[in-house]
Amino acid sequence: MIGVGLIGGSFAIDIKKKYPEVVIHGISRKEATLKKALELNIIDKKATLEDLINADLVIVSIPVDATVKLLPTILDKISDHTLVVDAGSTKEAICKAVEHHPKRRNFLACHPIAGTEKSGPSAAIAGLYVGKTNIICEVEKTTFKLQEKALQLFTDIGMRIRYMDPVSHDKHIAYVSHLSHISAFMLGKTVINKEKNERDIFDMAGSGFASTVRLAKSSPAMWTPIFKQNKENVVETLEEYINNLQHFKELMQQDNFSEIFNEMENTNYIKQILNGIN
Ligand code: NAP
Questions:
Q1: What is the arithmetic mean of pLDDT over 168-180?
Q2: What is the CATH number of the domain that holds 251?
Q3: Does residue 186 have its Cβ closer than 6 Å to ligand 1?
Q4: What's residue 272's pLDDT?
Q5: Are residues 251 and 215 both part of a single domain?
Q6: Ligand 1: distance of its center to the CA of 86 in Å?
Q7: Given ligand 1 and candidates 2, 4, 6, which is best to mutate, with the most ligand atoms within 8 Å of its CB?
Q8: Which of 4, 61, 230 best tests ligand 1's pocket when mutated (most atoms within 8 Å of CB)?
Q9: From the CA of 127, how far away is ligand 1's center (Å)?
Q10: What total of structural domains would you count in the chain?
């Protein structure tokens, strides 16, 4: 496991449960992170990049900028039969980083659509991936035998598979994931700024506020490189979102509450779309 935080650590827990004979080696930047992962029994042993030659499977779950930088080196160091999968929330830059690598066929580009707002080894949980979708990009560029190995693993830990090209992945995920995080961060900021003057505001915060702003607890170290890599798509979603907010504000200023009712009623359709997710 390269990266033993929420995503890598949760993979490690479920893989260990499914295949108890497996020995999981962890690699991270900080010694303290590996120590924590060992204490929590997420990994069996510490390792370094020099140990990759002995790995059957390498799961890369580090921030997407670090993935782009490190992935070519990882492919340099593995054996011919090693499968490398990543978990990055962006896909175009990661796929591009290794498109001409001689070991490109050992790599499978993945994005597990699962997670929480927590980070680090202590955020890792069992069963995170059960019933969740794993988006796989450029599957045809991975050796068939290694594709099969990966599919078996993902199915064994309860995941569904969806195939997509990296460009479409980044475009769609900007709407359903990246925009939601920006929206939560800026909602949190708006309320924090107000709270500086009105200290009682958090006493009045109900479950609606807590659930809407939950994603604002997410790690900036993970999200800044995601926004950087998906800048164009994210800016496009922000423009559409800001237009909608602006329109809502104008309706309020115009006392057009029948149209405000309609806006909300039309958006209630989200219940049908998300039926079964929450
Ligand atoms: P996380 O809990 O913060 O874990 C990431 C770990 O990566 C950190 O513990 C950090 O350990 C390590 N790391 C950072 N830079 C590194 C480097 N250059 N080399 C080696 N290790 C490094 O983050 P996460 O939520 O697991 O996210 C991991 C990946 O999964 C990201 O690419 C993210 O886009 C993707 N993802 C996240 C979610 C989500 O909801 N969180 C969902 C799907 C996919 P140190 O303490 O040692 O620096």
A1: 97
A2: 1.10.3660.10
A3: no
A4: 86
A5: yes
A6: 11
A7: 6
A8: 61
A9: 18
A10: 2
| 35 and 155 part of one domain | yes
Specify the pTM.
0.94
278: pLDDT strictly greater than 80: no
In ligand 1, which atom is closest to the CA atom of 225?
34
Identify the CATH number of the domain in which residue 147 sits: 3.40.50.720
Is 231 part of any domain?
A: yes
Burial class (CB in 10 A: 0-12, 13-18, 19+), 116: middle
User: According to the model, what pLDDT value does residue 14 have?
Assistant: 98
Is residue 188 within 6 Å of ligand 1 at its C-beta? Answer: no
Query: Are 85 and 216 part of one and the same domain?
Result: no
pLDDT tens track for 33-43: 999 999 999 99
Task: Identify whether 1 is part of a domain.
Answer: no
Enumerate the H helices of the chain as residue ranges: 6-18, 31-39, 64-77, 92-97, 144-156, 166-173, 179-195, 207-213, 220-229, 231-253, 257-267, 270-274
Which structural domain, as residue segments, surrounds residue 232?
169-277
Phi and psi, residue 252, nearest 5°? -60, -50
